[in-house]
Design brief:
heterodimer; A: 151 residues; alpha+beta; Alpha-D-Glucose-1,6-Bisphosphate, Chain A, domain 4; 7 strands; B: 105 residues; mainly alpha; Arc Repressor Mutant, subunit A; 2 domains; 2 strands
């Protein structure tokens, strides 16, 4: 019984975090490699209007797929394929949506939705739990203190 | 963002149950959650609102349905702020002790 509930768990994952930063700062932090390498497992990620590309520390190709929506500094939607792990790379592509909304008091709310995971259970399991959470805490820490999480 | 709201939201067994239910299976409607609790629909709605205000539950609309998702980030933040700092040394000492005892057992 518990096995079937676990596979159902993860076809859509939603994460939300309040960050004391402007939407523009968050936008830069998620679309530019010099920022992402400080909080995204060392990945140098570049998001343009057409491409989502991620390179590992030794220039390994960790992701190389299309951008579906590119609306700075509010909304970014791109393909997700976990090329960093051969086991996960074989699964179908899923989708990641970043939404940034300005709040009062100098805060912005960042929502990350990882969906279309129905046919990619291994990817879903690997990004859930600590996966996205470490990215988002790292991003928040970097923007609020200027320092990476694990220094 | 607001530690008080998170601690208050967690200080209730029904709300913790709701979080556990979403942890088991994420993205549920009010009707689905309501079926799991011995409580009025209005009561469940009230608890969900407190969880939502604390950022522990995020809702997304899809067509006519509203789905509730567990957002684990605020708990992570509480963990980083309140648990890591005080427990890191003790926990590792306890783990060492446990390993040692289990090896000799």
């Amino acid at each position: 019984m518990s096995v079937s509930t676990i596979t159902e768990t993860t076809t859509i994952q939603v994460y939300q975090v309040f960050i004391k930063a402007t939407p523009e700062q968050i936008w830069d932090a998620i679309t530019k490699p010099e920022f992402t390498e400080k909080y995204f497992y060392g990945a140098r990620i570049e998001n343009t209007a057409t491409k989502h590309r991620s390179l590992g520390p030794n220039d390994e190709m960790w992701a190389d797929g299309p951008t579906f929506e590119f609306d700075p500094p509010r909304r970014l939607v791109h393909e997700w394929r976990s090329l960093y792990d051969p086991d996960l790379a074989g699964e179908p592509a899923s989708r990641v949506t970043w939404e940034i909304e300005q709040q009062d008091g100098g805060f912005s709310m960042l929502t990350v939705v990882h969906d279309q995971l129905e046919a990619s259970p291994k990817t879903a399991a690997s990004v859930s739990g600590a996966g996205w959470m470490m990215v988002l805490s790292g991003l928040k820490t970097l923007l609020e203190t200027g320092k990476p999480l694990s220094s | 963002m607001d530690d008080d709201a998170v601690f208050k939201a967690l200080a209730d067994p029904s709300r913790r149950l709701l979080l556990d239910l979403l942890f088991e299976r994420d993205g549920r409607t009010l009707t689905e959650l309501d079926a799991e609790l011995e409580m009025t629909r209005f009561g469940v709605m009230k608890h969900l609102r407190v969880l939502e205000e604390a950022g522990l539950v995020v809702t997304r609309r899809q067509g006519r349905e509203k789905f509730h998702f567990l957002n684990p980030v605020p708990i992570r933040e509480i963990h980083d702020r309140w648990i890591d700092k005080y427990t890191e040394r003790q926990v590792s000492a306890l783990l060492d002790l446990k390993n040692e005892l289990e090896e000799t057992a």
